[in-house]
């Protein structure tokens, strides 16, 4: 281990081409050198570990190189280059202004500026963290910076450009360094691993790169640490273990709990995370970040915003496919609120637990939201999502969503003729499944139908519904093949339940259906009241299938279904967290048992 050199030093770039993640900037610097258009002062800005000092040193070496190659890079072989590489060159002077920021340090630099270069064309002065210079030092420096001897080049570096005086900024050529992307870091770490004969999983390198937060130097230090403790075999498991990073599997399990409304699971997972020693604020922020990743992974167009390995992208996309965008937006918003409230909360654990409970209830109504709040009838929105294919005979033979969109696009009712397949069954009161009329969303002609006092749309069968008094769009004509058996509220509820039972794998829909409360509006028209837009969305996106199954099970083609969004009473939404929690405990006695079982202390 005598000759061990940390990777951050060993793999410090020695040419512009080997600087990671700053291609455009290094190309500009190289061009200005090869065209001999040097400024006398440069300002390199960017966060720590992005290569500012490395670039400054390469720049100093390159402008003094005797045999620059065709690409404008230093040869690394001439005397000057060798001295630079050994760190023994007299033509480069570095000052760390973070620790040497006084007037005397600056006077020392100004004195050195007067000494001409030795066996070279330029003397380069690198002043790191230049924003830390005291005012007196700044003022002493200004004159020299403005009119330095012709052989002097100043390279100032700063992590906080806004703190640099305008008088300095105006005298420098400014270069802004990018944060290094995760992918660039992973590529470089992978190169270092190969050079060192270390086996490293891409997922592990990704974790290291994320932890380094845009700083290559940190990434290399972390890599050394993980490689040392995992005996040269850097796996995903060893990386998260070493770096005390919360595995995204925890977040995925939580998302599953949110989607199924499983409060118990969510609270227990949080307990598990706490017991592993993770800070609650770190956890909430991690959860928000994970939700954000799911949000961008849910759409191929935004997938490029995801800085992750292909493996992680694939895994995220799978989870994202289960989540409605509305659910993710609301969930991020709840996490964000918890983050803001965290610092002022006296019981931080309770705050996080409340947030988790609310997250679990995003797709199911919470008790405090139910009640006799005046419902708001919402127009049924056409869904871009095609109904899920099922193998039951009750499924309509053609995609329904496109019909709905077409109807909306034309903004007119589309009374349909029976499909040709129905003709042979014209006299049959029990048509075969493919002949079942396709449900469409009909826009009213002339007068808007009014349901619940608010103008809205309703769903009607293609031939219209003579019994429906409020359906102005319907054609008063009943086809011989339309079924119109009478049914009771109980039979409707039974059919509703049967549909829930027959789709055990479609948890989003069945969960939404369980929470919707369909009630009879008139003879065949039912209104399902839902408590959130997410539930509304789940039902609407499956409306074609749902209506088809209802009509089939009830043997009645005139059944109509409207969705009504009930946002609850205005006062209910203004409850504080603790008020909400006490209402919740009263309404769900099992919460008390759970709190006792889990030894949670409440304030
Ligand atoms: Zn050289």
From TrEMBL:
<protein>
    <recommendedName>
        <fullName>DNA polymerase III subunit gamma/tau</fullName>
        <ecNumber>2.7.7.7</ecNumber>
    </recommendedName>
</protein>
<dbReference type="InterPro" id="IPR012763">
    <property type="entry name" value="DNA_pol_III_sug/sutau_N"/>
</dbReference>
<feature type="compositionally biased region" description="Polar residues">
    <location>
        <begin position="458"/>
        <end position="482"/>
    </location>
</feature>
<feature type="domain" description="AAA+ ATPase">
    <location>
        <begin position="38"/>
        <end position="181"/>
    </location>
</feature>
<dbReference type="GO" id="GO:0005524">
    <property type="term" value="F:ATP binding"/>
</dbReference>
<dbReference type="Pfam" id="PF13177">
    <property type="entry name" value="DNA_pol3_delta2"/>
</dbReference>
<dbReference type="GO" id="GO:0009360">
    <property type="term" value="C:DNA polymerase III complex"/>
</dbReference>
<dbReference type="InterPro" id="IPR008921">
    <property type="entry name" value="DNA_pol3_clamp-load_cplx_C"/>
</dbReference>
<dbReference type="Pfam" id="PF12169">
    <property type="entry name" value="DNA_pol3_gamma3"/>
</dbReference>
<keyword id="KW-0067">ATP-binding</keyword>
<dbReference type="GO" id="GO:0006261">
    <property type="term" value="P:DNA-templated DNA replication"/>
</dbReference>
<comment type="similarity">
    <text>Belongs to the DnaX/STICHEL family.</text>
</comment>
<dbReference type="Pfam" id="PF22608">
    <property type="entry name" value="DNAX_ATPase_lid"/>
</dbReference>
<dbReference type="GO" id="GO:0046872">
    <property type="term" value="F:metal ion binding"/>
</dbReference>
<dbReference type="InterPro" id="IPR027417">
    <property type="entry name" value="P-loop_NTPase"/>
</dbReference>
<feature type="compositionally biased region" description="Low complexity">
    <location>
        <begin position="412"/>
        <end position="422"/>
    </location>
</feature>
<dbReference type="InterPro" id="IPR022754">
    <property type="entry name" value="DNA_pol_III_gamma-3"/>
</dbReference>
<keyword id="KW-0235">DNA replication</keyword>
<dbReference type="InterPro" id="IPR003593">
    <property type="entry name" value="AAA+_ATPase"/>
</dbReference>
<feature type="region of interest" description="Disordered">
    <location>
        <begin position="368"/>
        <end position="488"/>
    </location>
</feature>
<keyword id="KW-0808">Transferase</keyword>
<dbReference type="InterPro" id="IPR050238">
    <property type="entry name" value="DNA_Rep/Repair_Clamp_Loader"/>
</dbReference>
<keyword id="KW-0547">Nucleotide-binding</keyword>
<keyword id="KW-0862">Zinc</keyword>
<feature type="compositionally biased region" description="Low complexity">
    <location>
        <begin position="384"/>
        <end position="399"/>
    </location>
</feature>
<dbReference type="GO" id="GO:0003677">
    <property type="term" value="F:DNA binding"/>
</dbReference>
<keyword id="KW-0479">Metal-binding</keyword>
<comment type="function">
    <text>DNA polymerase III is a complex, multichain enzyme responsible for most of the replicative synthesis in bacteria. This DNA polymerase also exhibits 3' to 5' exonuclease activity.</text>
</comment>
<keyword id="KW-0548">Nucleotidyltransferase</keyword>
<dbReference type="GO" id="GO:0003887">
    <property type="term" value="F:DNA-directed DNA polymerase activity"/>
</dbReference>
<comment type="subunit">
    <text>DNA polymerase III contains a core (composed of alpha, epsilon and theta chains) that associates with a tau subunit. This core dimerizes to form the POLIII' complex. PolIII' associates with the gamma complex (composed of gamma, delta, delta', psi and chi chains) and with the beta chain to form the complete DNA polymerase III complex.</text>
</comment>
<dbReference type="InterPro" id="IPR045085">
    <property type="entry name" value="HLD_clamp_pol_III_gamma_tau"/>
</dbReference>
<feature type="compositionally biased region" description="Polar residues">
    <location>
        <begin position="401"/>
        <end position="411"/>
    </location>
</feature>
<keyword id="KW-0239">DNA-directed DNA polymerase</keyword>
């Amino acid at each position: 281990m005598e000759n061990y050199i940390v990777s951050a030093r060993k793999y410090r770039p020695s040419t512009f081409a080997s600087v990671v993640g700053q291609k455009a900037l290094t190309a500009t610097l190289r061009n200005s050198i090869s065209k001999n258009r040097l400024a006398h002062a440069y300002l390199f800005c960017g966060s720590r570990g992005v290569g500012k000092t490395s670039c400054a040193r390469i720049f100093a070496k390159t402008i003094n190189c005797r045999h620059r190659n065709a690409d404008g890079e230093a040869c690394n072989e001439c005397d000057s280059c060798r001295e630079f590489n050994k760190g023994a060159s007299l033509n480069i002077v570095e000052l760390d202004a973070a620790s040497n920021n006084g007037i005397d340090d600056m006077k020392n630099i100004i004195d050195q500026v007067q000494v001409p270069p030795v066996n070279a064309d330029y003397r380069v002065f690198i002043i790191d963290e230049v924003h830390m210079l005291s005012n007196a030092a700044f003022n002493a420096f200004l004159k020299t910076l403005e009119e330095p001897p012709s052989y002097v080049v100043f390279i100032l570096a700063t992590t906080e450009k806004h703190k640099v005086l305008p008088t300095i900024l105006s005298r420098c050529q400014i270069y802004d360094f990018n944060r290094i992307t995760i992918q660039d870091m992973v590529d470089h770490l992978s190169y270092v691993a190969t050079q060192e004969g270390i086996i490293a999983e891409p997922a592990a390198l990704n974790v290291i790169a994320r932890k380094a937060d845009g700083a290559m130097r940190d990434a290399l230090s972390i890599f050394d640490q993980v490689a040392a403790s995992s005996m040269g075999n850097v796996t995903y498991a060893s990386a998260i273990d070493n770096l005390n990073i919360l595995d995204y599997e925890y977040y995925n399990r939580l998302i599953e709990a949110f989607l199924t409304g499983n409060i118990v699971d969510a609270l227990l997972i949080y307990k598990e995370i706490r017991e592993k020693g993770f800070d609650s604020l770190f956890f909430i922020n991690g959860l928000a970040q994970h939700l954000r990743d799911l949000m961008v992974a849910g759409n191929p167009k935004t997938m490029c915003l995801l800085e992750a390995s292909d493996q992680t992208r694939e895994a995220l996309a799978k989870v994202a496919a289960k989540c409605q965008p509305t659910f993710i937006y609301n969930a991020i918003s709840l996490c964000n609120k918890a983050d803001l409230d965290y610092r002022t909360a006296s019981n931080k654990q309770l705050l996080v637990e409340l947030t988790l409970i609310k997250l679990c209830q995003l797709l199911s109504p919470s008790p405090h939201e139910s009640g006799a709040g005046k419902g708001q009838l919402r127009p049924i929105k056409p869904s871009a999502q095609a109904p899920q294919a099922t193998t039951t005979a009750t499924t309509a033979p053609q995609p329904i969503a496109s019909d709905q969109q077409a109807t909306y696009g034309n903004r007119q009712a589309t009374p349909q003729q029976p499909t040709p397949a129905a003709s042979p069954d014209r006299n049959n009161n029990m048509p075969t499944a493919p002949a079942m009329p396709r449900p469409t969303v009909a826009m009213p002609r002339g007068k808007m139908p009014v349901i619940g006092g608010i103008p809205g749309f309703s769903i009607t069968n293609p031939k219209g519904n003579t019994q429906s008094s409020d359906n102005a769009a319907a054609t008063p004509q009943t086809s011989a093949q339309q079924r119109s058996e009478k049914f009771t509220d109980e039979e409707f509820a039974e059919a509703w339940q049967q549909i829930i039972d027959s789709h055990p794998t479609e948890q989003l829909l069945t969960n939404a259906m369980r929470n919707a409360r369909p009630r009879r509006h008139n003879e065949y028209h039912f209104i399902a009241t839902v408590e959130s837009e997410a539930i509304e969305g789940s039902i609407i996106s499956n409306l074609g299938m749902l209506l088809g199954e209802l009509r089939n099970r009830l043997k009645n083609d005139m059944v109509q279904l409207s969705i009504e969004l009930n946002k609850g009473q205005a006062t209910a939404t203004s409850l504080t967290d603790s008020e909400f929690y006490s209402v919740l405990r009263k309404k769900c006695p099992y919460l008390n048992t759970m709190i006792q079982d889990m030894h949670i202390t409440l304030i």
